[in-house]
Amino acid sequence: MNPWLVYALSGVALFSVGLVGLFSHQHVVKRILASNITGSGVLLVLVALARRVPSGPPDPVPHALVLTGIVVSVSSTALGVALARRMARLQAEATHSPEHEPRSDGEGP
Amino acid sequence: MDGLLDGCLALCLPLLAYLVLRTESLSQAVVLFVAFGLLSALGWARLEAPDIALVEAAVGTGLTGALLMHTLSWTEETPPDVRARARRRPWALLAMAALTLLLGWAVLALPADSPGLGLEVDARREDSGVKHPVTAVLLNFRGYDTLLEIAVLLVAALGARAVNPRSERASSEAAKDPLTGELFRMMTPALLLVAGYLVWVGDHGPGGAFQAGAILAGGGVVAILTSRMGTPRMSSLRVRWALLTGPLLFIGVAVAPLFSGGRLLEFPEKYAGTLIFIVEMALTVTIAMVLLMFFPGTRPPRTGRGSAR
Amino acid sequence: MHELRTGLAFFLLLNILAGLVRVARGPTLTDRFIVAQLFGTTGVGVLVLLAADAGRDALRDVALVFALLAPVTVVAFVRFAVGSDADAKGASSGPDQEPRP
Amino acid sequence: MSPLELLSAAFLFAGAAFCLAGTVGVLRFPDVYCRLHALTKVDNLGLGLVVVGLALRSSSWATALKLLLVWLFVLISSAFTCQLIARAALRRGAVPWGGRREP
């Protein structure tokens, strides 16, 4: 039960928890969290496999890939949150539109 | 003792992830998720991947935590129908267990020790211009990935900005708050220093553009939240140039060897080190600005109350 | 010394997991957030202990980043969990109203 | 075990003890404001003792100074954290504990 195997199995468990969580929630932000957890599960398996080098430092190539993977997963989370925020705002406007005067859109993006 | 620490950490990660997804209230889920980010950073540290622990720390505590806290302010805590969730829970647990066993068996079938590409990277590391293998792979051997990844970041930033066009004005009342002002004044020099240090150390140790960019973005988030700086507007030229310096410089450096007979992304050996350092500085600025663009600024008023705008 | 350091790192990890009880039980959002900060500080402790091993100096930079970026989440929490117009609401009617036993 | 190692081990154990005290404080204290003290004061001291213990055994002055720098940053950030969260809790209407023994 060498260390890399423990973390690889933990990454697999993370992946399955995240994937099942992704499908069992309706709330948008919860689903974003679930997709984030699924991603980090996959990355954990990748780095754990990189640790299988019998002697010397672990294999740097998966490390570089996972490094980019984390930054991309953050940007996809941020995009997801931005989309969720827009949906929340539209829903709110749909339910409260009668009393509100038509909102003038602010200055450019 | 090492086995105990690894075993406990490896056990707690999925446990904490399950807790994050099982809780009903969103606020508890967000806080648990921040704790999950921390534990995964410890996991990377134990797996001898300091670069990844650094990125996870810089991005997890800096950006994701603040961004998810922001979601607390505009999402209504929709009361979930607990009965339906309770009815489905055994099935969910069964699915998780089945998936884990299946994939776990696949992982167990892998050979226990494989040399990986470490030797090839070390063999060619001299002419990559940097001494640290991960940076060499990131910016030289697999520079193509990093180049496209910067494009992915730009697209995500443009998308986030297009979807939330209105960046609200920071309310002036928060600007007079002495406490956060002092915090901002104290943090900024330290953040800039550590960001510069990380870009420099990326040459021969774990560090680099991503970590430094995330740290600068964390400082920027504090600046926005303490209304020392307005939300970066896409219409201002400075923001656009900050977004474009990294990719343009990287593409320029990548395409330049084509004219002198070399292949795409083939850094000339003599200047590889300095070229990589310049590209990393530009990438730091771009990544910091991109991560900052994700932050929509101040909290919109509760939609329930008539917003006196 | 390596055994002592790793043992203490394990002990601090147990502290972090004990903190989860407060997250589950914490009546208000503020309590849960305090535990998140506790994880941050104890996490820095674990990283510093692990960084003392041979060849693992880079973990000190990770601890440095954790220590530096802790206030970001706090400022975000204060800004969004309380809201910019909190003064208008006054202290008495906040959402953290704990039911008196 | 040279005296320096003994001293550093003593510091490490004291640090771990204070970290434990901080965690127990966060779990057991009656209201938000007491828990803040447990978080920002006690836990910091625990981290400080661990840092001093490690600095004594560190190989070079640069490492020792970097360790103390980490602790300095944690001190600064928890000073602000304590005040900011306490003010936020007050605004969110968290009532301070009255000091009476729970019935």
Q: Your description of this structure?
A:
The complex is a heterotetramer of chains A (109), B (309), C (101) and D (103). Chain A has 3 helices and no strands. Chain A is mainly α. The longest helix of chain A has 37 residues. Chain B has a domain of 177 residues. Chain B is built from 12 helices and no strands. Chain C has one domain. The longest helix of chain C is centred in the last third of the chain and has 25 residues. About 10% of the residues of chain C have low confidence. Chains in contact: A-B, B-C, B-D, C-D. The interface between B and C is large, with 63 and 51 residues.
Task: Give the gist of this structure.
The complex is a heterotetramer of chains A (109), B (309), C (101) and D (103). Chain C is mainly α. Chain C contains four helices and no strands.
Key words describing this protein structure:
heterotetramer, A: Helix Hairpins, 3 helices, 74% helix, disordered C terminus, D: 103 residues, mainly alpha
Helix and strand topology:
The complex is a heterotetramer of chains A (109), B (309), C (101) and D (103).
Chain A: H1 3-23, H2 28-50, H3 60-96
Chain B: H1 2-22, H2 26-46, H3 50-74, H4 82-108, H5 118-123, H6 133-141, H7 143-163, H8 172-175, H9 178-201, H10 209-225, H11 237-259, H12 272-293
Chain C: H1 2-25, H2 29-51, H3 58-82, H4 86-89
Helix pairs in contact in C: 1-2, 2-3
Strand-residue fraction of chain D?
Answer: under 5%
Shape of chain A: elongated
Helix content of chain D: over 70%
Structural class of chain D: mainly alpha
Chain pair with largest interface: A-B, 85 and 100 residues
CATH class of chain A: Mainly Alpha
Secondary-structure element series of chain A: HHH
Strand content of chain A: under 5%
**CATH topology name of chain A:** Helix Hairpins
| Mean pLDDT reading of chain D | 89
**Judging by the overall fold, what is the CATH architecture of chain A?**
Orthogonal Bundle
Count of domain modules of chain A: 1
Whole-number radius of gyration of chain D?
17 Å
Give me the oligomer status.
Answer: heterotetramer
The strand count of chain A comes to: 0
Order of helices and strands of chain D: HHH
Tally of individual helices of chain A: 3
Low-confidence stretches of chain A: 103-109
